[in-house]
Amino acid sequence: MLPLSPAQRLTFVFGDKLKHGTEQGLVVRWRVMVHFSEDFVGGFFGFGRTYGASVRFECDSVAALEADWPAALAATASWRASRKDKATSLHLFFESTALWLWDAVSFVKANVIVSPGSLAQELHGLYLCVYVLTPDMEHYLYAELYPVATAKSAGSSATSDRGVS
Questions:
Q1: Cα angle vertex 48, ends 44, 51, to 5°?
Q2: pLDDT at residue 165 greater than cutoff 90
Q3: Does the structure show a pLDDT above 80 at 153?
Q4: 81-96 pLDDT tens trace
Q5: Burial, 134: exposed, middle or buried (Cβ in 10 Å; 0-12, 13-18, 19+)?
Q6: Whole-angstrom Cα distance, residue 65 to residue 34?
Q7: What is the pTM of this model?
Q8: What angle do CA 115, 67, 60 make, to 5 degrees?
């Protein structure tokens, strides 16, 4: 398999598992590692409409996850720019094999379940739902961070502790 940049692995296409390309006349297939989609729409017949998105990581190591993280944040920033204040929630699915499952949990702890000052700017103010699971759908971590816990202005640890369930 050819090494790919995070931009090559990023897709906005629903359910697209394989991409096709050519390298020196040979057809090369690679697996998309990051899936970003807008899955959730709230509101009553267009009144009070809100939007939620999901990012699903299918990586084979924590190093690949770390390499894909900036691309996912960039996709989130682009989505938030297009939806403005109506972009309210983000679901993060980290799919991992048993070999590096606890590394994925550590990655989430280091990058998502952090104080608001340490949280990536692209995630501030969103309702975050975090899942770490195996390809067989065995869940090892589920966490919800409410907007009060991800807001840039939430400064005290007591406030951020109440935002995690």
A1: 95
A2: no
A3: no
A4: 998 888 899 999 999 9
A5: middle
A6: 9
A7: 0.69
A8: 105
